[in-house]
Amino acid sequence: MSEHAPGDLACLDYAATTPLRPEALAAMEPVWRENFGNPSGTHEIARRAKTIIEEAREQVAADLGCEPREVVFTGGGSEADNLALKGAAWAAREQGRGEVIVVSAFEHHAVLDAAERLSRGGFEVRHAPVSAGGVVDLDAPVDLLDDRTSVVSVMLVNNEVGTIQPFDEVATLVRERAPRAVLHTDAVQAPQWCDVAGATAGADLVAVSAHKFGGPKGTGALVVRGSTRLVPLVDGGGQEMGRRSGTHNVAGIAGLAAALRATAEGREQEATRIGSLRDRLAKGITEAIPDACFNGDRAFQTAGICHVGFPGVEAETLLLMLDRDGVCAAAGSSCQSGSTEPSHVLLAMGVPRAEALSSIRLTLGWPSTDADVDRALEVISAAVERLRARPTR
Amino acid sequence: MRVLVAMSGGVDSSVAAALLRDEGHDAVGVTLKLWGGESDSGCCSVSDVEDARRVAAQLGIAHYVFNLTDDFTASVVDPYLADHAWGRTPNPCVECNRSIKFGRLLERAIDMGFDAVATGHHVRVRDEGAARRLLRGSDAAKDQSYVLYMLGQPELSRSLFPIGELTKDEVRRVAADLGLRTAAKAESMDVCFIKRGDRSRFLADHQVFRPGVIADVSGHPLGTHEGFARFTVGQRRGVGVATGERRYVVAVDAPTATVTLGSRDDLLRETAPVEQLRFVHEPPPPGEPLTFQTRAHGALAPGVLDGETVVWNEPQPRVAPGQVIAWYRGDELLGGGIAAP
Fold this sequence. Notes:
The complex is a heterodimer of chains A (393) and B (341).
Chain A: E1 10-11, H1 22-33, H2 44-64, E2 71-74, H3 77-95, E3 100-104, H4 109-120, E4 124-128, E5 149-153, H5 167-177, E6 182-186, H6 196-199, E7 205-209, E8 220-224, H7 250-288, E9 293-294, E10 305-309, H8 315-324, E11 327-328, E12 333-334, E13 340-341, H9 344-348, H10 353-356, E14 359-363, H11 370-389
Parallel strand pairs in A: 1-11, 3-4, 3-5, 5-6, 6-7
Antiparallel strand pairs in A: 2-8, 7-8, 9-10, 10-14, 12-13
Helix pairs in contact in A: 1-7, 2-7, 3-4, 7-11, 8-11
Chain B: E1 2-6, H1 11-22, E2 26-33, H2 46-59, E3 63-67, H3 69-85, H4 92-111, E4 116-118, E5 123-128, E6 131-136, H5 153-156, E7 159-160, H6 168-177, H7 199-205, E8 212-216, E9 221-225, E10 248-253, E11 258-262, H8 264-267, E12 268-279, E13 290-293, E14 300-306, E15 309-317, E16 324-329, E17 332-339
Parallel strand pairs in B: 1-2, 1-4, 2-3, 4-7, 8-11
Antiparallel strand pairs in B: 5-6, 6-17, 8-9, 10-11, 12-15, 12-17, 13-14, 13-16, 14-15, 16-17
Helix pairs in contact in B: 1-2, 1-6, 3-4
């Protein structure tokens, strides 16, 4: 009945996750099959595992533009963001460097909720506003940044509307107005689209997550530049130079590094290819549904995103209909229960609540094809038309 | 048929979905998120959604969550508070059925191209000619027709109640046979947006408490109260005044914030006024002897319906204004209304 064969699905939700790249699988398989060692040990089996991790670390450092010792492997993007926010805030508190945390209003919940948790521990949290087009504004609000500010977090690419933040400007402003602050960026959505090394050169902390770019789930990394101090979230065996204890996920780390390398190598070509798919998708939607409204300033957006609202249509019902016809898409941010909340990202951009509740996110990725776009256009047009007919009214 | 099954994460709606699937329907499960507040004792909690999702997966049907919190607040919670502020005793589950499950959900289902909505309510339907009749569920102790008194032909023609022919034991057996994790799950008996035993605090937090006087039927003051919303007509326990004899709340007067206590005899009435009448099919012939139910699991009383008044065969305790009065011909629900002051 309603479930489709795997080949009969069009995925337009690659910002949520991506399938494993062949390069990542090839890097992981031998680890699972042969290298079961615990890299913290001292014998040959352990050394083999340690070598896999350190080779991965060097590769990740090269791709993210840092030194190998500055890479901390984590159990995913959320953990990396939490380590950044909480670790830096606690370290600053220990050193008496201030207790003010500044985050953009449309950060991922891994950052927003970590900040919220810190506020319950006595930290002051300030939210930087976001423009209607989806770009953070640290400049206009007076009193946002000051010398009591200990942590600033601004994402590199927004996960819902795909806008790339002008991070150089952010970094310049933060150094000038909040000289004691540690600057973190959640770059989880970035590696497919941006040169993360270049874009985040001004950051002290940079978080990435493997499964967003063809690596395995449950593996991430945090770049910790220079002498940036962090209080660890996980204490124990002192792995990752005491910054993240716990036996390494050796296969996951190997997969992350391989996926990151493959992503970096193909990025420019892929971005062009996916950008033209995206343009065809947006054009097709506009032709079929002339009053569709697109969220996010196109001048700042990554190639793979199409965030679109259909006035008078409830996103929840639209997503159900798309799913029944084998088109996978998303709306807002899913909370744990799986219900769609009005997107905090759109609300932060000043989009009215009703519009936010009628918007869906279509995201393309490295596996996307022309056929996916064709299928999506056909199914979305039909579903929106059906819902707008409103037989109950 | 294409059927949208409202799955609460409980055993009844789990089995409703299973039976529809087994009958060959194209069934899709949906769980409603209705309340974002802190209680989540009922159908809105994350673990209940997880149970519903898991059951749907076990059955091989798709499952979605609809966030209807805005509608629920506007159509159920706000009127619930307003009713209490007026000294009435609302039934929020009835309002939820009226405006959410057989309102917004049914509307969405039809808009999306579904033929019907199904729920796990214990009621049965019978088609007689052009009319669809609504009967009490086979399990008399679990019958839920009372809270569905508002369903008319338009709603019933697009509603399915797959478990109405089963007893609760049979429902649990089907769930166990299918290995569903909800098979032995306890029933939720509370109002879903209020924590167990916390009704007074919920009402107090939402500023519907207005202090006033407790008086006897001749108007003599017996004491004071912190808020009349804590009192319901017919209530005996916890009235907070020691008079040495059994005292019942016989009236709650919002304008003067006065709660009146009296004997059981003071509570008895020859008639009960009803408003907002609804009929499943058409009104019964005038003077037809009917049975009336005034509480979700209350006893039945015989009488006749005369316009907007129930005329009891024998005097009956006053029905708290705001409560549902449903009328039946034998096992068949004919309609109902809201008890008027």
